[in-house]
Specification:
Chains A, B: It is an enzyme of class 1 (oxidoreductase). The structure is a homodimer. Chain A is an alpha+beta fold. Chain A contains 16 helices and 20 strands.
Chain lengths: 442, 442
């Protein structure tokens, strides 16, 4: 650690109490009792030096943004060094090129405040958008509310500067929207959870803020009609900006009526609001309880949905429980079957269940909890059954939260050993000493 | 070859005259005098058997769709076997899930005909869209006219079934829009030009056909204003569906006035056309010569731009020349400088130059030619200078045509040896015997 003391001075924290704050992430689980310290690099050169030192000395490095991961992606798993990127927070917006060049420590929300000056925005909108950093969102391949229309991080990162586990600085991708310079390494790093390289700079693609939007909040007695309506809207050539749902008990938790709720928004041209809302209402067969006719009100209409996470946490806490939030996706046609199946499984395991998610892209976030005294055993069995159900329905056990530590067993059920073996070989190419976020994904 | 005769029967062609038709692609270059034959698999099982046989016997396999590559990606480079995917042309559309599951041999145009029944489309629109196949578009990471808004193939492939050079069948990605099941191997295969694996099935993401569109064709005396206007439109919160340009001599070649021409289209909601066109005209400072107020007419307005390739070919042929079409991109802010620089370089080398491209994403297709008797020497020098200019301007030597055989030197100038070495190691992971499309990219 002498090297870190000398090289980083006050930007290396060894004090156990402070360092302990960096051990775990929002998954609330602890995988290592302690770490050797936290280091706060300020530039790329320092990151290169750090990784080369770690490679020589076989010291595990745990990259961290704001540690909002729910799968343990940002937790330390051994007595290594946490690398906090909070000081690398450069933002350069180029409205002509339509890109932002940013440091990994920039928060998505801060970026969007800056972009608003140019009529631009960065569309990826995870639940943690207020605190999540660009580096964390890249590592995690973050998704969120606008996934059905705008996709996820993989669709918005054009280029990266990244330090591999061998200490090589690679510049991959382009500053231009189109880029075909060899293998697409950008997208190999996006979603790799910091296990292949540490991102020191990202070139992000930007979008113009839509001129306007319309939205409805509608209640449904049966889920099939709710799902069908999302499909009807798309077939009616309106492409939902968001299509979010909460089941009846979850709607009640966030302050709505205790019925299945659909939040459906469409971005439109200025002046086209009234006609678009009429079309939307003609396609939606639920009971429309709220309407929005501009961008601001459409975002406001969505607010109860944004309270889902807090609603889930507080409900679990009131019940003296430890919350476990899952993140699965199934093809949209299988959503009703998935919801019915999940409810049946929760019942069979005697577990509570709150259900909501991004219905426009088939992404569900089932939440359950266990009492502290009882331990997670029953929940773990439920999760394995859930994974089995989801894989059977042609879905995935991880839509946007990543694998981290917590879902390593589940991903095996989905992918099988052969695909994982190729991933292990890729890991060896970029990180032969296994120093970058070890214990994650594989 | 006994294995191929036995296994594929009449679907293995050894006859030299017929086989010769499959040696080269639309780059018009020949890198091998002959091949051992062409094989036409009909299903995945046959592809697996073929690759395992090739791996055991170290026989090079050259995958081919409709061979529209302009960089030699689809040409044979040795006396191996061309694998034509034309018989694997399954199309299954699921409008509820918003995906199509297709064989590699399906043509993009055919796919869109099928999708139109559901109000959906596949937005990637390369110049070769009428003949290009899904497999070829994936291998090549195809782009095209709608890149500035809809991106390229990498943004529209959700999942793949693919046979690696070891003969392993991998299922990568998902059928859902969000997918975080480990490393993003889908996007490693997209744009890898068939050098890492042979795609046997693809799950494609679909978009609703926009309700309507407006467009203008405007002429400009200076290029700076033309480029600025594209940026003004985006800053005005209209996101161009297409933004295409032709320089003055090229405009004349496709039948327009001999002035810089800008084709600018924006998709809009039904009913919003007139207001959107007024806004568009208020932002565009060139001389508006044509207007379109619906989707059909907007596509029609773009037609002269679609004649670019044929205009370039016939102009070169009239001049007794062999056409060379390039494919570079620079950040949009650097477009005027790039255009000026390219014109200067062409002049210095005494070469003709026709310039057009996708200005919305900074992608230029400079075309030049050499006389048959003269040989390509002068053009090659021009291309190296072009690459130097583009790299200096923070651009890329390959925006959407890929590397193939022809741009291997240029990509070295852009990426350097270190990044290429990582790519070589990735190649070894997936194709240790170097049997998949050898001689391409690396």
């Amino acid at each position: 650690m002498e090297f870190l003391r000398k090289e980083f001075g006050e930007r290396f924290i060894e004090d156990g109490v402070t360092a302990r704050l960096y051990v775990r992430d929002a998954s609330f689980m602890e995988f290592s009792e302690s770490i050797a310290g936290v280091v706060f690099p300020v530039d790329e050169e320092e990151v290169v030096k750090l990784v080369r030192w770690a490679a020589r000395n076989k010291v595990p490095l745990f990259p961290q943004g704001s540690a909002t991961s729910l799968s343990g992606n940002a937790s330390a798993t051994a007595k290594g060094v946490v690398v906090s990127f909070e000081k690398m927070d450069k933002v350069e917006v180029d409205p002509v090129d339509g890109v932002a060049v940013v440091g990994p420590g920039v928060r998505l929300e801060e970026l969007n405040v800056e972009l608003a000056r140019y009529g631009l925005f960065f569309p990826v909108d995870p639940g943690s958008v207020k605190s999540a950093t660009v580096g964390g969102a890249i590592a995690n391949g973050a998704g969120g509310m606008r996934g059905a229309k705008y996709g996820t991080m993989k669709d918005w990162v054009l280029g990266l500067r990244v330090v591999t586990g061998r200490g090589d600085l690679l510049r991959v991708g382009c500053r231009t929207y189109k880029c075909r310079n060899g293998y697409d390494l950008v997208r190999l790093f996006v979603g790799s959870e910091g296990t292949l390289g540490l991102v020191t700079e990202a070139i992000l693609k930007l979008a113009p803020v839509p001129e306007s939007a319309v939205a409805v909040l509608a209640y449904y007695d049966d889920l099939e009609t709710l799902v069908e309506d999302v499909v009807r809207v798309r077939a009616g050539r309106l492409w939902p900006l968001f299509a979010e749902f909460l089941d009846a008990p979850t709607s009640a938790v966030v302050g709505l009526e205790s019925r299945n709720a659909l939040f459906l928004g469409v971005d439109v041209n200025g002046g086209a609001e009234e006609r678009a809302l009429r079309r939307l209402e003609s396609l939606v067969r639920g009971e429309v309880a709220q309407r929005a006719l501009d961008w601001g009100n459409a975002m406001k209409l969505l607010e109860p949905r944004r309270r889902l996470f807090y609603g889930q946490i507080s409900t679990a806490q009131r019940d003296g429980g430890v919350l476990v939030i899952e993140d699965v996706a199934v093809p949209i046609s299988k959503l009703p079957e998935a919801v019915r199946g999940l409810k049946k499984l929760a019942e069979r395991h005697g577990l509570p269940l709150l259900l909501g998610g991004h219905i426009g892209d088939g992404n569900l976030h089932p939440a359950t909890w266990y009492r502290r005294g009882e331990g997670p055993g029953r929940v773990e069995k439920f999760l394995r059954d859930m994974a089995e159900l989801v894989v059977k329905l042609n879905g995935t056990v991880s839509a946007e939260h990543g694998i981290g530590v917590l879902k390593k067993d589940l991903i095996k059920m989905e992918l099988g050993e052969e695909a994982l073996n190729y991933m292990r070989e890729l890991k060896r190419v970029f990180d032969p000493y296994n120093i970058l976020n070890p214990g994650k994904i594989l």
